[in-house]
Amino acid sequence: MIDSHKKLKVLDLFKNGKGIFQYLNDIETLPFSEILSIKTVDLSFVTFYGNRDISEPIDRMIGGVVTEETMKQIASLLYGMYYQKWANMYEIYKEEVDLDSYVLVTDENIKDDGTEETTVTTNNDDTTTNSVTGYNSEEFVDSEQETNNSTGNTQNEGRNNNLRDRHEEQRGNLGNRLDDRQKAIDGLNQDVIQEVVFKDTIRLIGSLMF
Known about the structure:
The protein is an alpha+beta fold. The protein has helices spanning about 20-25, 40-50, 55-60, 70-95, 180-205, and strands at about 100-135, 140-170. The longest helix is centred in the middle third of the chain and has 29 residues, at about 70-95. It is elongated, with a radius of gyration of 43 Å.
């Protein structure tokens, strides 16, 4: 009995809005995802190879119907065959081309050592004099005198002692180096993604010719 199902194209290998590289990324994060959107990689792959027929092995695997499970199976095949190769190539490319124009590292020790001291001094002098009239006299004379002296000191002292460490690292582009970074990313897209990753992928899932 001849299987007469319609031959699918590479562009049909999408399910739930996800292409093959997004399914690959679900298995293990693709190394180049730190600078390239995986969704964009999927769309770029379809732009280059979407109109090709799927390969005979993949066609037999999916049986004419693309499902979540068959997409995971295809992604697992690609992962086993090529993931480590792609990761190695990406690391080599990063060593040869600095994708970050500059790295700024800031280490700072912040010490807040404050002392606050308040002193209040109180002096009180209290003198009391008792007077009486003399014998056969209307004039008052001092009979006794009582003097009270008091001194008080109040001192308040507070101390703040805070020590904090701050580490900050900024990676990115500086001024006119923006063009250099973009050229590095374009080079990655050309030398690694298009020339290696895409060609490895189409060998498995698509026909060699249109």
